[in-house]
Structure formats: C-alpha cells, structure tokens
From TrEMBL:
<protein>
    <recommendedName>
        <fullName>VCBS repeat-containing protein</fullName>
    </recommendedName>
</protein>
<dbReference type="InterPro" id="IPR028994">
    <property type="entry name" value="Integrin_alpha_N"/>
</dbReference>
Amino acid sequence: MYKDYHLTAVLTLGLMMAPLAGLVEANQIDYVSKPVYNHNGEIIGSTRGVNAVISRQWLPEGYQVLDVQEGDVNGDGVSDTVYLIGHKQEDSSYYVDSMKLIVENGADQKRTDVVLDKMGGYQAELLLRDFTGDKTVDALVTTASGGSGGWYYNQVVTLGDKPSILFGEKENNTGSISGQFLDGFKVEINGGVGSGVTMDVSDRTADYLRLGLYNEEGKLQKQIKLMVTPFGRLEPVDTNHDDIYELKGIQRISGAYNADGLANVETVLSYTGSFWQAQSVNLRINLHPKMLQSHT
C-alpha cells in the first residue's frame, strides 16, 4: 500500500500568492487540464492535476507520469484517477519502458499498480473506455515503436479488483488477413470475414524479375507470403451506439518487401467476453491494379 501525504496550510488571502509562486518556481509544478469521463466514455468535465511535487511522493525511482485520465474503474459511482507511468533510462531519450498503471481510488485514495506486460515506446497515451459492457472503464494504452514502419504497441487492461490484459501482444499481431503470390504476376489476398480478392500486379514485373520472384514467363519461382503488419494505433469507436466501445485499427499489406505496399486493411474488433472478434474488415487497395476476381 502506498503512503499518502497530506499538507494542510492556513493562509490569509494577502499571503497566499507569494508562497505559491515560490513553490511553483522551486518545484516546477505543472498544472495539466485533463478530461473526466463517465462510465459511458462521455466527457463530463475536466480536472487540473499537479504533475510534479505531489506525484513524486509515490512515484518509483526513475519513473515519470506519462498521462492521466479519470473514470469509474470499479463501479462505485466515484471517479477514480488512473496514471500511466514509465521508466526513463536516460534523460536525453524520449523512450520509456517498464510501463505501469497506477489506479488511485476516488473513494479512499488508495493506490494499486498494474504492470503492463512488455510495454515500452514513445508518445505513450492513455484512454479510458468501457470495452466489456460491465459499466466500468477499461484502459487503452498505446505507444509508438519509433521504427520506420510506424508501428504501435497496444494494450487494453481491465482495472477492477482483478486487473487483466484483454488485448496484448498476441492480439496486436493477429489479424484475419493473409495473402500470397500466384503465377502470372498475381496476388491473392484473403480475409474480410471470408471474402477474398485476386489482383494483377504485372505493373511491378521488372522489380519482381530482378528479385527472382518470377521468371520471364510469369512462373512463380518461390513461395512468398504477403507481409501483414501488426495493428497501428488503435482507436476506440462505438459503432453500435450502445456505450460499449470497439477497437478500430489499420494493418498494412506489403508484397516482396516492406516498401512494396499493396493495400491497407481496416478492422473493427469487438470483445465477446473471451476473445476479440472482427466486426468488420475493409480492404483498401493502395495501387490501381486490375481487379481480376472477387469472391465471398
């Protein structure tokens, strides 16, 4: 259990401003306005939180607050505060690792920590939404990988009495899309809840010949599966307008190499109580290939 520290001071109006100014200058208190959400994910107000001296009293050594949100995580009707914190190894780097969520109970100010499995990166962001339909908010944490592919790491975590990861590394790297090269300079993309499409990519003949993927007659020389990236930044969406949120993410489909972009696939995932199910899959062709065949 974390220790709570309370400082009570009685100041006359005339003496209030000078000590406060000195405190701000000495400790660099940063007042950050944050939105407050109810259990439906609706913004019901904002809060001004101190992101410096007060938080440092309980922050583990080497950690810093990355984001703060408020919402009812346990269903008691009282708004709780959720801190996203991360460990920064070097002051000169923007990379943080060993991320955690600190949940401060709004009723008694007790704090509990939730470790985020293998979570690190840049530009970390925290959002609170109800993904399970239990009338309490869950945490969606996203961080940028920092790589050239523009990938993100995403986790959805329940924050009740027994916190658990609903969406993690496995789900982030799993999708319903797959594909392969075919003879005749063609590509087959499968997915989209059973749908599929075959495309003509003969406009890339020279490149594929150079790579030895095809011969001059268009015969495939080696079997290569299409590359499907993990989900990018996931976005909470309420597609059914029932106050239960889904996850919308985009994956990139590439051919012979990462920059050989063929299409993007936008997937909306809903949580069923035990797994995430594709609610909709939308394939967006990047190029202008000849559509040879479409089937369901």
